[in-house]
Amino acid sequence: MPDWLSALLVTLLKAVLVALALLTAFAYMTLIERRLLGRIQLRPGPNRVGPLGLLQPLADAIKSIFKEDVTVTLADKLVYTLAPILAIGMALTAFGGIPAGPPGSLFGTDPWVYNLDAGVLALLALTSMGVYGIFLGGWASGSKYPMLGSLRSSAQMISYELGMGLSILGLLMLVGSTNFLDIVEWQAGARGHGWLILFQVFAFALFLVSSFAEVNRTPFDLPEAEQELVAGYLTEYSSIKWALFQMAEYVNIMTASALMSTLFFGGYRGPGFLEPLIPGISSWPLVWLIAKIAFFMFLFIWVRATLPRLRYDQLMRLGWKLTLPLALLNTVTVAAVLAFVPPEGLLGIPRLWLLGAVSLLLLLILFAASDAVRGLWNAPALRQGDKRVPGRTLGGD
Amino acid sequence: MLLVGLGIGILAVVVSGLLGPKKATRAKLMAYESGNDPERGGVGTGQRFPVHFYLVAMLFIVFDIETAFFYPLAVAYQKLPQFAFFEAITFVLLLLVGYVYVLKKKVLEWA
């Protein structure tokens, strides 16, 4: 067998494995989410199908495959069918670029499907391709509610994509590469500087908010607000097509979690201080990345159970008036520190730690000023001819 | 990976299309409109929607291009002389002028 063929086969095999793993993870993620929501609200959650409800995802999958696949008369047949396929395809592809271990650590092969030099860019591009799936799906349904839902959803996703893209610029300046391996090794490898959250906590806060909005999760799940817009862009979908959209959403959540762990929390590397206890523990493949992803998924569910939803105008204002300028501010701050502070730092404090302190300070200022800046995004929607009364408390509190 | 992802999607749709029951009735195929016959809306019926969405998309294009300019700058930043900082700041300030104009025009107010 020629070399390129075996390489191709290995890649294909890994792609299939990753895709199947993601789909299984999606299925059990729905179960875990429902059970956790149950626990948080002091009730058991699904526990009838199989022990601990473990067969529930299987039952759901079989049900959705055997359901009738309804295509409404007004729908654009081709686009209506293609949209969920596009959504799931892009979502699965995006995840393949995340490295799950050091090179060559997975039975002699590399624990990722593809590794691009512009990895971060490719991942952002692929996740934003998901907007097409959602928008086309809503448009092709040939009905009002899906159309409005998809318009809202795509406007929201592209708005917060800006915050997402801009908030990691400071991080890229520090690392000097957009390759995931470089980013992870910079944090925890042989010349490890420490997890990037230490130096970029402000950027992480912005990135976290943006990724919640980017994957349409609570508190930013307005496109699917059942009480307001029926089911948003999903209104006309049934059976497996609906399931594919849900799948794409959950895979996007996993990708966002993996992205956060890789960019800010050392990715597939474990903490170095465990190294003296059990040699090699920090470079075990899969284990650390999965643990970190699980943590962030728990965070997603926890937030869903805890926070109320924003209003749509508040959501857009939060994205454009707060996240975007603050992400720019973070970028400029990092640039200024890198330009004017020598590498060895000032007053005996190394430059990186100085940067971390500045970043933390920015976050604290934001928290302290949160009441003052709330008017930026929490203002009540003004109707034509309304005048804002000065001094009146802004709505929503 | 792309092929596998799309392939899984196509496979799922085809399998479900083969397995599911097929009993279409007129009422079942109606678009959702709380039981009424749908009025205009959706594909090709010229439904109008708020211009805000258009404005947001336009702004997104502008600022996303800005982001695209920043990426190479960010990656190469530590190799550049201090002068690069001032150049970047100039660019950011120019964009901020546009941003403030947009704010003052109340494009970002969702009334």
TrEMBL record, chain A:
GO biological process, one term: aerobic respiration
Encoding gene, per UniProt annotation: nuoH
Membrane topology designation: Multi-pass membrane protein
Leading EC class: translocase
Pfam families, per the entry: NADHdh
Parts of the chain that traverse the membrane: 6-31, 78-98, 118-141, 162-181, 193-213, 247-266, 286-307, 319-341, 353-373
Domain of life: Bacteria
EC number(s) stated in the UniProt entry for this protein: 7.1.1.-
Keyword ATP-binding assigned: no
Compartment(s) where it occurs, according to its Swiss-Prot or TrEMBL record: Cell membrane; Membrane
GO cellular component, one term: plasma membrane
UniProt keyword Amino-acid biosynthesis, yes or no: no
Keywords: Cell membrane, Membrane, NAD, Oxidoreductase, Quinone, Translocase, Transmembrane, Transmembrane helix, Ubiquinone
Function: NDH-1 shuttles electrons from NADH, via FMN and iron-sulfur (Fe-S) centers, to quinones in the respiratory chain. The immediate electron acceptor for the enzyme in this species is believed to be ubiquinone. Couples the redox reaction to proton translocation (for every two electrons transferred, four hydrogen ions are translocated across the cytoplasmic membrane), and thus conserves the redox energy in a proton gradient. This subunit may bind ubiquinone.
Annotated family: Belongs to the complex I subunit 1 family.
PANTHER family, per the entry: NADH DEHYDROGENASE SUBUNIT 1, NADH-UBIQUINONE OXIDOREDUCTASE CHAIN 1
Catalytic activity: a quinone + NADH + 5 H(+)(in) = a quinol + NAD(+) + 4 H(+)(out)
Example of a GO MF term: quinone binding
UniProt name for this protein: NADH-quinone oxidoreductase subunit H
Automatic annotation (TrEMBL), chain B:
Chief location category: membrane
EC number annotated for this UniProt entry: 7.1.1.-
Signal peptide: none
InterPro entries: NADH_UbQ/plastoQ_OxRdtase_su3, NDAH_ubi_oxred_su3_sf
Statement: the UniProt record of this protein carries the keyword Iron: no
An MF annotation (GO) of this entry: quinone binding
Membrane topology label: Multi-pass membrane protein
Catalyzed reactions per annotation: a quinone + NADH + 5 H(+)(in) = a quinol + NAD(+) + 4 H(+)(out)
Enzyme class (EC, first level): translocase
Cellular localisation: Cell membrane; Membrane
GO cellular component: NADH dehydrogenase complex; plasma membrane
Residues that span the membrane, as ranges: 51-71, 83-102
Keywords, sorted A to Z: Cell membrane, Membrane, NAD, Quinone, Translocase, Transmembrane, Transmembrane helix, Transport
Family: Belongs to the complex I subunit 3 family.
Role of this protein: NDH-1 shuttles electrons from NADH, via FMN and iron-sulfur (Fe-S) centers, to quinones in the respiratory chain.
Protein name according to UniProt: NADH-quinone oxidoreductase subunit
Native species: Deinococcus wulumuqiensis
